[in-house]
Specification:
The protein has helices at about 30-45, 55-60, 60-70, 80-95, 100-110, 115-135, 145-150, 160-170, 175-185, and strands spanning about 1-5, 10-15, 20-25, 200-205, 210-215. The protein is of the alpha+beta class. The protein is globular, with a radius of gyration of 17 Å. It has nine helices and five strands.
């Protein structure tokens, strides 16, 4: 929730909980100043409120949904959205435990900081992958948001429910994708056009040769929402 207030200051207030965040801000506050903090507040609740087995969904899919709402509302430029999307790809790509299976996340969540940081990024990327998969399977008629609308508000195991929801909107059987990238922790690499048409995905190597995926904004994206691809000209 975002609440606009009257005034001349550049201040804002953010209250984050495990299921979202409330933001009080003034019109003069630039979106790209507060958005990363909002998404962080919404997707990184207090550790004692996190079920490690489901953190990929409760945190990662919340981040994806927040970005979808941001895109649809036209609150950010393509470059700002690319920056926010890039946070997930680089956090995941830079993690030394990016191939850790979800079983290890559960077992060592409290002991290893990197395992607490992994699920939000992995979940966000998995959401982007499923969104692209559904759009391509349905010719742009459906998206992950349609599937999420079929998800129960509370579930002890979101995996099977998500698989059923994706199938229900025409996305086919994604059991193998879920098992590979969430359960087994196989390295998740997004297709280059997964965020088309307004973004491309490339691979960048740092000075030591460590490679991560990066999101780049394409020039010329106009306004007006379509469902054909992420961004869809909705910027």
């Amino acid at each position: 929730n975002i609440v606009d207030l009257d005034g001349d200051d550049q201040s804002l207030s953010i209250n984050g909980r495990s299921t979202g965040a409330m933001v009080y801000l003034l019109p003069q506050v630039r979106y790209d100043t507060w958005a990363p903090f909002v998404i962080g507040a919404a997707t990184m609740p207090a550790e004692d409120k996190v079920a490690p087995a489901n953190a990929w969904y409760t945190q990662g899919f919340t981040a994806f949904h927040t970005l979808e709402l941001t895109r649809d509302a036209g609150l950010a430029s393509p470059s700002t959205l690319a920056y926010l999307l890039n946070q997930a790809t680089t956090q995941y790509g830079n993690s030394p435990l990016r191939r850790a299976p979800n079983r290890r996340v559960v077992e060592e969540y409290a002991a290893i900081r990197e395992l607490r940081d992994l699920p939000p990024a992995r979940g966000a990327l998995f959401a982007m992958l499923l969104d692209d998969h559904i759009r391509k399977a349905t010719g742009g008629v459906r998206s992950l948001e349609d599937a999420l609308g079929r998800m129960p508000a509370l579930t002890d195991d979101p995996g099977p429910a998500l698989i059923d929801a994706v199938a229900a909107v025409g996305g086919g059987d994604v059991t193998s994708l879920y098992r590979r990238y969430i359960v087994d922790g196989e390295l998740l690499q997004l297709p280059r056009d997964a965020l088309a048409p307004c973004f491309t995905i490339g691979t960048v190597a740092d000075w030591g040769g460590w490679q991560t995926q990066h999101v780049f904004a394409r020039a010329g994206c106009g306004s007006g929402k379509t469902v054909a691809g992420y961004g869809g000209g909705a910027l």
